[in-house]
Amino acid sequence: MSEYRIQGATGEWEVVIGLEVHAQVTSQAKLFSGAATAFGAEPNTQVSLVDAAMPGMLPVPNRECIRQAVRTGMAINANVNKWSRFDRKNYFYADLPQGYQISQLYHPLVGEGEIEINLDEKNPDAETKRIGVERIHVEQDAGKLMHDQHPTRSYVDLNRSGVALMEIVSKPDMRSPAEAGAYLSKLRTILRYVGSCDGNMDQGSMRADVNVSVRKPGHEFGTRTETKNVNSVRFVMAVVEYEASRQVDVLEAGGKIVQETRLYDPDKNETRSMRSKEDAHDYRYFPDPDLLPLELDDAFLEECRQSLPELPDVKRHRYEEQLGLSAYNAATLTADADTARWFEALLAEAARIQKKSEGEVAKASANWLLSELYGALNRLGKSLEDSPVGPEEGAELLALVADGTISGTIAKQVFEIMLETGDRAPKIVDEKGLKQTSDTGAIEAAVAKVLADNGDKVEQYKSGKEALFGFFVGQTMKAMQGKANPQVVNDLVRKALA
Amino acid sequence: MSIDLQTVKKIASLSRISVTDAEAEAMVPELNNILGWVEQLGEVDVTGVEPMTAVIPNHQRLREDAVTDGNVRDRVLANAPQAEHGFFAVPKVIE
Amino acid sequence: MTDLTDLTVADIRDGFRAGDFSAREVAEAFNANVAGAKALNAFIVETPEKALEAADAADKAKAAGEPLKPLSGVPIGMKDLFCTEGVQTTAASHMLEGFTPTYESTVSKKLWDAGAGMLGKLNLDQFAMGSSNETSYFGNVISPWRRGDGDTAALAPGGSSGGSSSAIAARLCPAATGTDTGGSIRQPAAFTGISGIKPTYGRCSRWGIVAFASSLDQAGPMARTVRDNAILLETMAGFDPKDSTSLDLAVPQWEAGLSSNLKGKTVGIPKEYRPDGLNAEISAMWDRGIDWLKDAGAEVVEVSLPHTRYALPTYYIIAPAEASSNLARYDGVRYGQRDLPDGAGLQDMYAATRALGFGPEVKRRIMIGTYVLSAGFYDAYYTQAQKVRALIARDFEQAFEKCDLLLTPTAPSASFALGEKQADPLAMYLNDVFTVPASLAGLPAMAVPGGLDGQGLPLGLQIIGRALDEQTVLNAGLAIEERAGFTARPGKWW
């Protein structure tokens, strides 16, 4: 992997990055209560008495939240701990009703795993790097404070209080903004594949605490800062870049890096110290006495394993090796779980209609999806999710081309009409009479006319300018209004010129 | 281990209990007395002993993932010292 | 006609069914006693209307020939640590003054569903922290008992369930709920000449009970007879999916299983419970207890619980640690008191609110708990305490290889005068020396009265059983009750 170095006055510096990613676990109900988790509800409506920490209220864990964290661990080849337990992290804040967050410090649910990143997914020869994951644990989210509704008061909304989060802690294995960005993207891809987090960074479903330090290459780790709640891949990269150069400046000016919590301001593209939160934290972690140790049995773990989908790396290799797709196409199609799902639906349908293997229809399907469909969606400002044409309709169109009913050129026209009208390809081809012809009589007549009209070019062809062959074919196709079978046209032109 | 006035004030602050200097001073011998007494536990040989995790052998049950609660805002806010527009209100927090 | 307030729970239940009296008559009799006993300060809130409401429902059901419930016609007192919907619940703290829960604790709901009526919310030590009921924000509870020599000194009813013990001994209610973290059911029962049982940890749901120390807190009944305890515990116990530490087990029919025949049972006498300097009257009472159990057919053996002397220090690390965290929720944001000095920010509001809302003993325990969990001390205190706790539990397991139950005194002394031990927290803590070990091990344990001391004050005996073996504990309690013939009651001076 290319080495990222900061050129300082005293020489080169290396940046060391670790990410703690908080990912909201996809579940109907909260981690320890039966209140809903949906985004955007009226304040304090998705709050149970447990979430509001009323006296005497007790937590009972949600199986699905545990299951999703276990599946996530399995997806990054991590050790799942059959014995784990919940600890209380004690601190006082208005968004934390219990006065403690139920988390896991001493015995997390998931131990060490790793994630393979590739700085250039589209380039099959680009180097890959494995980033270690230290642990994944499950914990409660806090509520939300609103500061702008009243001049002297802050308002507390506990709807998010108690929603399940996975904290995914990487090792300090990243060395450049690009690596940090690639790690976060890849992690998001995996979570979306597994279905354990929707990855909606703009809704706060995923956010990263970015730990950055700098050192002279080969030296000990430097003191790190932690920039909290960074909510996009781009911002994570910006934070690393900004923090690294800020730290180099401080160090080279003879200063020291303070271990502290910082906040990223996207508008100014800078980080600043959150001194207000620095008031001597001592979280007094201890095992939550309201909960028992979490012991997972083999059947539970087996179900987690069995229910894992094919993961992005495996899928990409399969697309290349078994479907014969290019490295670029395979990478593009597998970068997002939804795209891969759409592609596989298209592939299955295309193979079914054409009575061929998926391998035989893969290239045409991939090409159509990535160029025709993506082009159209881009133009319309839509995504695959709200595509006006579904995989089945797409497969029908591809089948018409494959069996020679229409040509590739006509297919583009048909697709445009599909997008406009919502009609299906066979109906459009029928109604508009777009079926291509293999009627040799009509084509022969057209060929004869083209040759007769272009006697000079026929002479040139015959004296060796063979490139003109394409011209005759093109003119014939034009005369046939695109509906002639290209293979038949080819054959007849060749015959007529012989 | 013996704690001093500074430590008592630090514990009070961590506990979010405001204490006057006089109260803190009174607590120094009181807490030292109790802590000195519990420290006799240090003499117990606990080699190879695991800390107790569950008082009575029992396993952690897991709930099914279903929305069974919530939509009780009135009950949640009923005892609030200050509630406005469906929120709990607290003195302005500067982050 | 007998005074209805002298009847036991079983008498009331059965007499009501037999038509000897109406439920309303019973409720009215107890309501009158409650109203006439302000001097004891046993109640924080009186709810005569609730008692009448339940009684009328019982009378109506009976008149209509509808099936009656297990506790139809029986009014009880509810320790003010149980959240009761629509009725102020304070844990005897200023912090929760005015707090009216919008929910009902599992245990209290089970009791109401079984037909019981509520006479009121009983006073207690603040957040159940105390052994003499002197830490309540709503004033001390006074024991109905007085020393025999004409002394009018106000005596402690024990704690933390001091309102419960005082009210039962004074015939203000036939039974009441208690909670026991380190002896809070057993020690007050012993001080007032009544019975009480702390069941196995996990038998009674903790849902809706204001938490003190989660790994120790356990609800249980208090009443004048062993049978009444069995009746109430059957209703209070049971699996609750809302409490992760609740035991998913069927509730035995303890009342039906009562038998004072202890043939085939072996009683262990832990030698560490008889330290040098044990009060001679306590020691003599214990010996009488041993004889009674022998008389009931039991074998008696000496056993050893070697880590007994470490139980109290262990408890005074674990309980405050858990409490310091459990009580963090009292911050003046969502319920309870709020103290917002002029210009105070959020964290200042917390500190002011908690300084105002908590009493001195609660603050002391929060501070100790905060300290033992704080950075650098956690392993030395908390982890060490949980290891010693495991050893204490192991002591019991090993003892129960040789015996089926243990007999010990309940408390190291009879009731003492209010104010006597208040100056020295440690002296107060030592009161729980015999009750704390079973709490740490989660075992069922019961206090039954054995007799009076030289001053005319009740002394109790404690029976500790194997986990889940409440039946043997109750049966041994019954054997003692039958032989002790404890009929003493405090003269009415209030």
UniProtKB/TrEMBL annotation, chain A:
Keywords tagged on the record: ATP-binding, Ligase, Nucleotide-binding, Protein biosynthesis, Transferase
GO-annotated biological processes: glutaminyl-tRNAGln biosynthesis via transamidation; translation
Regions that span the bilayer: none
PROSITE patterns: GATB
Statement: the UniProt record of this protein carries the keyword Ligase: yes
Asn/Gln amidotransferase domain mapped to chain residues: 341-497
SMART domains: GatB_Yqey (SM00845)
EC numbers on record: 6.3.5.-
Superkingdom assignment: Bacteria
GO terms for MF: ATP binding; glutaminyl-tRNA synthase (glutamine-hydrolyzing) activity; transferase activity
Catalytic reaction list: L-glutamyl-tRNA(Gln) + L-glutamine + ATP + H2O = L-glutaminyl-tRNA(Gln) + L-glutamate + ADP + phosphate + H(+); L-aspartyl-tRNA(Asn) + L-glutamine + ATP + H2O = L-asparaginyl-tRNA(Asn) + L-glutamate + ADP + phosphate + 2 H(+)
Cross-referenced Pfam families: GatB_N, GatB_Yqey
InterPro entries recorded: Asn/Gln-tRNA_amidoTrfase_suB/E, Asn/Gln-tRNA_Trfase_suB/E_cat, Asn/Gln_amidotransferase, Asn/Gln_tRNA_amidoTrase-B-like, GatB, GatB_C_1, GatB_Yqey_C_2, Gln-tRNA_amidoTrfase_suB_CS
PANTHER family noted in UniProt: GLUTAMYL-TRNA GLN AMIDOTRANSFERASE SUBUNIT B MITOCHONDRIAL AND PROKARYOTIC PET112-RELATED (PTHR11659), GLUTAMYL-TRNA(GLN) AMIDOTRANSFERASE SUBUNIT B, MITOCHONDRIAL (PTHR11659:SF0)
Quaternary structure and interacting proteins, as annotated: Heterotrimer of A, B and C subunits.
Function: Allows the formation of correctly charged Asn-tRNA(Asn) or Gln-tRNA(Gln) through the transamidation of misacylated Asp-tRNA(Asn) or Glu-tRNA(Gln) in organisms which lack either or both of asparaginyl-tRNA or glutaminyl-tRNA synthetases. The reaction takes place in the presence of glutamine and ATP through an activated phospho-Asp-tRNA(Asn) or phospho-Glu-tRNA(Gln).
Similarity section: Belongs to the GatB/GatE family. GatB subfamily.
Protein's name according to its UniProt entry: Aspartyl/glutamyl-tRNA(Asn/Gln) amidotransferase subunit B
Native source species: Sphingobium vermicomposti
Automatic annotation (TrEMBL), chain B:
Keyword Ligase part of the UniProt annotation: yes
Xref: SUPFAM superfamilies: Glu-tRNAGln amidotransferase C subunit
UniProt cross-references to InterPro entries, sorted A to Z: Asp/Glu-ADT_sf_sub_c, GatC
Reactions catalysed, as given in the entry: L-aspartyl-tRNA(Asn) + L-glutamine + ATP + H2O = L-asparaginyl-tRNA(Asn) + L-glutamate + ADP + phosphate + 2 H(+); L-glutamyl-tRNA(Gln) + L-glutamine + ATP + H2O = L-glutaminyl-tRNA(Gln) + L-glutamate + ADP + phosphate + H(+)
Class of this enzyme: ligase
Gene Ontology MF term list: ATP binding; glutaminyl-tRNA synthase (glutamine-hydrolyzing) activity; transferase activity
GO biological process, alphabetically ordered: glutaminyl-tRNAGln biosynthesis via transamidation; regulation of translational fidelity; translation
Highest taxon, organism lineage: Bacteria
UniProt xrefs under HAMAP family: GatC (MF_00122)
UniProt function note: Allows the formation of correctly charged Asn-tRNA(Asn) or Gln-tRNA(Gln) through the transamidation of misacylated Asp-tRNA(Asn) or Glu-tRNA(Gln) in organisms which lack either or both of asparaginyl-tRNA or glutaminyl-tRNA synthetases. The reaction takes place in the presence of glutamine and ATP through an activated phospho-Asp-tRNA(Asn) or phospho-Glu-tRNA(Gln).
PANTHER family per the UniProt record, alphabetical: GLUTAMYL-TRNA(GLN) AMIDOTRANSFERASE SUBUNIT C, MITOCHONDRIAL
Record's subunit section: Heterotrimer of A, B and C subunits.
UniProt protein name: Aspartyl/glutamyl-tRNA(Asn/Gln) amidotransferase subunit C
Organism: Sphingobium vermicomposti
Automatic annotation (TrEMBL), chain C:
EC number: 6.3.5.7
Top-level taxon of the source organism: Bacteria
PROSITE patterns to which the protein is assigned, alphabetical: AMIDASES
Active-site residues, Swiss-Prot/TrEMBL: K79 (charge relay system), S160 (charge relay system), S184 (acyl-ester intermediate)
GO CC terms in record: glutamyl-tRNA(Gln) amidotransferase complex
HAMAP family given in the database record: GatA (MF_00120)
Protein name: Glutamyl-tRNA(Gln) amidotransferase subunit A
Organism in which the protein naturally occurs: Sphingobium vermicomposti
